[in-house]
From TrEMBL:
Pfam families: PIP5K. The lineage of its organism: Eukaryota, Metazoa, Chordata, Craniata, Vertebrata. It is an enzyme of class 2 (transferase). Residues 288-321 are annotated as: Disordered. Residues 36-417 form the PIPK domain. Its main location: cytoplasm. This is Phosphatidylinositol 5-phosphate 4-kinase type-2 gamma. One of its GO terms (molecular function) is 1-phosphatidylinositol-4-phosphate 5-kinase activity. Its EC number is 2.7.1.149. It catalyses: 1,2-dihexadecanoyl-sn-glycero-3-phospho-(1D-myo-inositol-5-phosphate) + ATP = 1,2-dihexadecanoyl-sn-glycero-3-phospho-(1D-myo-inositol-4,5-bisphosphate) + ADP + H(+); 1,2-dihexadecanoyl-sn-glycero-3-phospho-(1D-myo-inositol-5-phosphate) + GTP = 1,2-dihexadecanoyl-sn-glycero-3-phospho-(1D-myo-inositol-4,5-bisphosphate) + GDP + H(+); a 1,2-diacyl-sn-glycero-3-phospho-(1D-myo-inositol-5-phosphate) + ATP = a 1,2-diacyl-sn-glycero-3-phospho-(1D-myo-inositol-4,5-bisphosphate) + ADP + H(+). One of its GO terms (biological process) is phosphatidylinositol phosphate biosynthetic process. It comes from the Eukaryota. Coiled coil: none annotated.
Amino acid sequence: MASSGNAVSSPMVILAPKTKTKKKHFVQQKVKVFRASGPVLSVFMWGVNHSINDLNQVPVPVMLLPDDFRANTKIKVNNHLFNKENLPGHFKFKEYCPQVFRNLRERFGIEDLDYQVSLTRSPPVRGGDTQGEGILLTSYDRTLVIKQISSEDVADMHGILSEYHQHIVKCHGSTLLPQFLGMYRVGVENEETYLIVMRNMFSHRLVVHRKYDLKGSLVSREASDKERVKELPTYKDMDFRNNMQKVYVNEEQKEKVMEKLNRDVEFLVKLKIMDYSLLLGIHDVGRAEREEEEGEEPSNEEEGEPENGLAQAPNMGSYGTSPEGIAGYMASCKPLEPGEFDPYVDVYAMRSAPGAPQREVYFMGLIDVLTQYDTKKKAAHAAKTVKHGVSEKGEGRGNSMPSDFGISSPTSLHSRTFITTTATSHLDLNLFLKTFVLLHIYIMKHCPKKMYTHRLF
């Protein structure tokens, strides 16, 4: 009997740990995927995970239909008890135009699984600049940006999404425009938060040492004293000119940038969008090498528990070997040297030309493309015209238009070629084709001692 009892109890001893281990693994996976300091982020992570899993069960359509640009998927959860320490008991999640954004992700070379992992494997972290309204986050691997937008922005996005998709199809995904990858609404405690996901224009591993927000105007376009004391201030057009900033690229790179810029600006003009900017980030390779040799790491101004429960973004490069996510496959490759990047991940990046005064990596892209030229913008233009006067052709000096697309005569490195710009003579069309007059691209010839200055416009 004793031996019989032992025979019966032995399987129980073996089975119990198996059952416990299985349950423990399941709970850990849920916590790993959906844990975030705030309920909005927890629901966002849960919703992205849920929507991608659902999309994987749906065949990819042969072509997108008009209804796809108006479609949405919604889910409402009540009395949610499982994992209640990380998710609220009641929440709603809505994804806009899932098939359209799925198609856009494919055209931008982003797999749904990588997109899912980048957003849900670990909570998003605060971006470097959160002084504006709303949420601005980056994914844990710093390849994606999650930005809070308004309901009006959602409506504007619906208004341009069809044309935007056509533009991306025509240019085969080669663009300076933001790469929109998903748009969502999160409802928690009777409050709705709208979020849009884009590819990060800066690198996930190369530190940006200087950045500029350029609009092609000098009116009220200078960084404030408050902005300048930040660890990474956002400089503007006047600062670009005063700093004698230049961008050194070769002729092939210049032609590619100009082709994209002209094509994208024409697209924005067609949609009557005018409040966009050119975001320019500069990585100083020499400085990065010195910091690596000296063992210096960028300091975080805030220590301890961050406000709003959002973790500070870790130093760039600390997740360069992540086994998962959009940049995850890089872990299987040899480590990148200082100043090197993967063009399939850092799609907005380009190296400075050989023979340039300093080794740099530039990141350029168009931002703030959801503002159309409406009554509010008309009033702002009129106010600038009254305040700053009118040019000889009768246009307000606060706006700019491209002049010729010609090439200036050869100049020395220290000379500057400024482009005369005027506002459109057809003001009734309410179109302002923006030009970034302060961004000078220098074409490095085979002889390093000789350079030609090319106008952007």
